[in-house]
């Protein structure tokens, strides 16, 4: 009996390029293709990197306004003050 039942799959070069082509034209999303062909999303990401197709990578854009940034800084400052108060209280007790 095998220690783990992991199946190693090898995909042909034309198959990989077909998947990337379908992603490029927008015929299917990455998750749809993964389900359709039973491919792990990380495998598709490896192919995207291998063939230098960064345009197909999912990108996350984090937008913060000045108000959000100042709010975060104020909260961080408050956390530090509370930590100091808690430490002082523990030392006094």
UniProtKB/TrEMBL annotation:
UniProt superkingdom: Bacteria
InterPro entries given in the database record: Homeodomain-like_sf, Transposase_8, WH-like_DNA-bd_sf
GO biological process, one term: DNA transposition
One Gene Ontology term of the molecular function aspect: DNA binding
Coiled coil: 65-92
UniProt entry tagged with the keyword Transcription regulation: no
One Pfam match: HTH_Tnp_1
Keyword annotations of the record: Coiled coil
SUPFAM superfamilies attached to this UniProt entry: Homeodomain-like
Keyword Plastid (UniProt): no
Record's protein name: Transposase
């Amino acid at each position: 009996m095998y220690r783990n039942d992991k199946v190693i799959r090898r995909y042909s070069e034309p198959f990989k390029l077909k998947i990337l082509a379908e992603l490029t034209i927008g015929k299917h999303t990455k998750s749809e293709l993964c389900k359709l062909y039973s491919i792990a999303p990380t495998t598709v990401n490896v192919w995207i990197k291998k063939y230098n197709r960064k345009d197909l990578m999912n990108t996350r854009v984090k937008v913060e306004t000045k108000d959000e940034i100042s709010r975060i800084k104020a909260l961080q400052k408050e956390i530090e003050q509370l930590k100091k108060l808690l430490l002082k209280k523990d030392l006094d007790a």
